[in-house]
Specification:
alpha+beta; five-stranded antiparallel beta sheet; 14 helices
Length: about 450
């Protein structure tokens, strides 16, 4: 389970977790679509491959290159808000945090989102970033159109009515089809969500999993390895009024306990692994039940300051509980010491070719390890369980799957690779990661 490290004489690029390093021949920050197209033409003439990189929140080498690294720092901001169509068109390098706050000022919101918002919109959608939802799907599923610059510098506008075959696959494109320069998202009037967080036993939450998913618009839970304890979160729309967490109590829960104390606990566990089960029992009881109501991005997202590496698999929803029980049994009988909770979320089926929820209602099981802690044995054992259930790995998170496996779990895999062959026959946007997961 080794990541790709590209080496040249220039200064390195590293991802957020620090587990991937690349040394591009040059780094470019184009300020316009025309400048980007010229960058691609020049790279092709120089025989260099090209990869766009956002904020580096992927744990794979999806953005690694020894050629030209495209930084989208200057391709940011909202191009247009169409209140009749209820869409927003945003430059590809715009961080989700900036988009969410700008939409809130306009009285608008995305329908669903993941639990962090540091990523760029292009990076998040290209790797299939998702939250949890009974009816509402990933951020990519909320795309209504996108602008894509292909290997020969052509600018393609893609939607259900224009270049529809490209649109069908490019909403989660892995950076393999071209460089996305703008995305149009569906939006809706801003609304309120009531979050209900409470502890629950592992046996109860797994026994009631289907009911909890059915009864709540957004349900997720975290299981703390070495314990029988879970923390659950249910988010449902509310008529209000808004009742956000108090400044002091919110700081205690979200910063002191979830980040500050947790950071110390993880560092101690890395230094003295034998302490981890005891720490897990204490930390799994530290977060108390609470209920609060706020606008969506303030409920869906949370600060994540403790750095880690992650593997996540999407399973058919009906397989999730059995697979999670197998993960628990594996941890209990092994010498592994796991300081990070295991996260479980859901998503409805969607129609994107390489979406982890493509064509099937899905549940996600995500495992994490504190940065700097050996993770290979744990992730390998978990991956063995996930693949036995036909799991699909998150495109931006650590896995060892290759094109032979992935073509078997994605019925529309060939549709994606056919579009790639047409748009990038010379693999200008290729790298070692794409060679492994998509083939040559």
């Amino acid at each position: 389970m080794t990541e790709t490290y590209a080496r040249t004489a220039t200064s390195p690029w590293r991802n957020w977790a620090g587990n991937v390093t690349a040394r591009p021949a040059r780094t470019v920050s184009p300020a316009s679509v025309d400048e980007l197209a010229e960058t691609l033409r020049r790279a092709s003439e120089d025989g260099l491959r090209v990869k766009p990189a956002g904020t580096g929140h992927s744990f794979t080498a999806a953005a690694a290159t020894d050629g030209v690294l495209i930084r989208p720092d200057l391709l940011t901001g909202i191009r247009e808000i169409d209140r009749k169509a209820m869409t927003v068109t945003v430059e590809a390098g715009t961080p989700l945090k900036r988009l969410n706050t700008a939409l809130a000022r306009e009285g608008l919101s995305l329908t669903n989102m993941g639990d962090i918002m540091e990523q760029t919109v292009a990076g998040a959608t290209s790797t299939g970033t998702h939250g949890t939802g009974r009816d509402s799907a990933s951020i990519s599923a909320q795309i209504r159109a996108l602008e894509l610059v292909t290997a020969d510098g052509t600018v393609l506008n893609c939607s259900e009515t224009e270049n529809a075959d490209v649109f069908a696959v490019a909403r989660i494109g892995l950076g393999a089809l071209g460089v996305i320069t703008a995305i149009t998202f569906a939006v809706e009037p801003v609304f309120l969500l009531t979050a209900r967080e409470e502890p629950m036993g592992f046996d109860q939450v797994t026994a009631d999993f289907d009911q909890l998913v059915t009864e709540n618009e957004h349900f997720e839970f975290y299981w703390f390895p070495h314990t029988g304890n879970c923390n659950t979160k249910r988010n449902n729309r509310s008529a209000g009024p808004a009742a956000p967490p108090g400044k002091v109590s919110g700081w205690v829960e979200d910063e002191l306990l979830s980040n500050g104390v947790f950071q110390v606990a993880c560092a101690l566990g890395r230094a003295v692994p034998a302490t981890i089960p005891s720490i897990a029992r204490i930390s799994s009881r530290a977060l108390s039940a609470r209920t609060y109501t706020d606008i969506p991005y303030k409920v869906f997202t949370s600060p994540r300051r403790v750095r880690f590496v992650e593997m996540e698999y999407a399973l058919p929803r009906e397989a999730a509980v059995e697979a999670l029980r197998e993960v628990r049994a594996m941890v209990d009988r092994s010498p592994l010491r796991i300081s990070f909770p295991v996260e479980v979320r859901t998503a409805p089926a969607d129609d994107i070719a390489l979406s982890t929820a493509s064509g099937r209602e899905s549940a996600y099981i995500a495992v994490h390890m504190y940065r700097g802690t050996p993770y290979q044995a744990y992730f390998t054992a978990v991956e063995r369980i996930m693949t036995a259930h036909g799991g699909r790995p998150h495109w931006g998170k650590i896995n060892t799957r290759d094109a032979a496996y992935l073509s078997g779990v994605y019925p529309r895999f060939g549709e994606f690779t056919a579009v790639r062959d047409r748009l990038d026959p010379d693999r200008l946007f290729g790298n070692d990661y794409l060679r492994r997961v998509l083939g040559d």
